[in-house]
Predict the structure.
Amino acid sequence: MAGARLKDVAERAGVSIKTVSNVVRGEGRVAEQTRRRVLHAIAELDYQPNASARHLRTGRSGIIALAVPELVAPYFAELAAEVIAAAKTRGCTVLIEDTGGDPAEELRIACGLSDPLIDGVLLSPLGLDETMLANRGRRVPLVLLGEQSYEIPADHVLIDNSAAAREATEHLLRIGRRRIAVIGQPPERAHATTVQRMHGFLTALHAAGVPHDPRLVPHTREFTRADGAAAMRVLLALEDPPDAVFCFSDLLASGAMRAAHEHGLRVPEDLAVVGFDDIQESRYSVPSLTTVSPDKQEIAELAVDAVLHRITNDAEAPHRRLTAGHDLLVRESTGTEAPRT
Amino acid sequence: MAGARLKDVAERAGVSIKTVSNVVRGEGRVAEQTRRRVLHAIAELDYQPNASARHLRTGRSGIIALAVPELVAPYFAELAAEVIAAAKTRGCTVLIEDTGGDPAEELRIACGLSDPLIDGVLLSPLGLDETMLANRGRRVPLVLLGEQSYEIPADHVLIDNSAAAREATEHLLRIGRRRIAVIGQPPERAHATTVQRMHGFLTALHAAGVPHDPRLVPHTREFTRADGAAAMRVLLALEDPPDAVFCFSDLLASGAMRAAHEHGLRVPEDLAVVGFDDIQESRYSVPSLTTVSPDKQEIAELAVDAVLHRITNDAEAPHRRLTAGHDLLVRESTGTEAPRT
DNA sequence: CCACAGGGCTACAACGTTGTAACAGCCTCG
DNA sequence: CGAGGCTGTTACAACGTTGTAGCCCTGTGG
């Protein structure tokens, strides 16, 4: 019941343990005839290598951790699925953690303390900052996804947030909107991601000669539907409300559309809406959502490759910054002919 | 860097390895004074037990696998988050797998072959059937979530699908709908879950003396938005289209509402819609969705407890069937005053 | 004063794997 | 004919932990 061991296979095939080990891993020189005999014995006994023993011996478990602030947020669920897929094609397994955005928890995971058997960590940080991470003792290979700060000493995988935000804004300007609000600016301590998106937004406004009204950038604590709806209500209470909103996540956009709907506004006629993330539901919302689509598959593959590279080609190489692609998907919420992506 | 071992702590504290091991696990008899000395050494060296060595020795890894058909489906993402939380409070970790609904993959995972270091498996099956599972060799403790068939030899965690479907249907009848369609019936090989929901639906119709029109139950292959939209279009092409739809998932309902919208229908005025799953986005859709809400937290806790129970109190107890609670959440899509849940 | 209990601690052997070193046997070449 | 080089194989010692058995004390009761 408890599974055959190398020893059992070896006895059955009439060879030494080490020869079986070599066959299993395709290493060392083994005569074709013995190889076949061993493979036969393996099949008969249904041998499966013991991962723990292997890990104990080699120091490799083949497991990498993926830590996200909130697995139920569709963006992270979709990203997680891509990471799992990318890891599978590279022969390793993913252990998902849900940090809840708690800095202490993120730090614990970044240090590899969550489970000492993991080989590396992919972390999507939220509250973490560089001072906390500066002296992390245990040096587990760490890759940050869509990071919060440039200063954290680790590899980074991200998209060109500034360019993406600029493109989204340009699209709104092109369809004639001039009072463009932004939802997604935190009240304090803006992440690098947010700073870049604001920068792209302002660049586009400036290039078009459109003045920026700070009252059109209400503060938002999280990237949730509830916060999007709340921010939208603030905007709609202005004496001179916006004719477009650029939301830094699709969930914010979903909440904003909900609030606009309750306020009796039509999207896109009265209010154009652009999101960010391209989560699946945005294709099916009513109206479907124009959004910036980061290439999640590429992000996942870059991240998994980066962490595996650091695990094998070991740790001291300089930290890299890897950029994945993105696209602006134009749908109904900005009033173009519905393309039904 | 590579982490301290029991041996290092032992040398530092001037005791034997075994004494340190005893202190770490709070077992055996250790004098208070040595205990303090050991704890001090542990803190100084930042000792963390090596999970693999422990697993190799004890046969327990503290890791359970959760396999779902599709992690990007919000229901499964939300369920996964609950399972992770439940496992954390019970001191174990969760490894998430994405089977894609592939029966072969599900079988592999049900047999514990995905990774031999896992202690137990929570599986949400889609394609698996009992004949495949009958002679699974390796006996990893297995718990099925919302299963496909009663006959599979394992513990089951589910909700009362029949009662839930009946309640949803009764609600539609109560608000005056008479031509009620159902979306979610597969073209063949209906799962136990689907069978029960159909049963609850028909029971309610029968009790109200409303005749059942089989043309109002189009076939659907998957529980996706696209399938929901396609099924809805079929229904809208009928000469006598429905005035209500009961969808077996919120995603189906989302697709159905999308199709209804494109067809120029108003929800709930022209068409009332009820979903199943209570995923977060259903609170924010336009209109918000009336839906059956399974108690996901309870499901997760029952499942984790069940698998842990089987791991420790070992395997041969008779298989149990555990039922979690559910609720019907009435929102805008069935026309009541919007309660903004 | 001896036997014995039991508290507090330690030595040793596993768990299943892999890296290292080495060993036969054969062939080739000088 | 001996040195050297391959090829295929094996013995052995780790990796870090925990279960078992047993040790040395000190204190107590006969």
About this structure: The longest helix of chain A spans residues 192-208. The domain at 161-294+328-334 of chain A is CATH 3.40.50.2300 (Rossmann fold). Chain A touches chain B through 52 residues (CB under 8 Å).
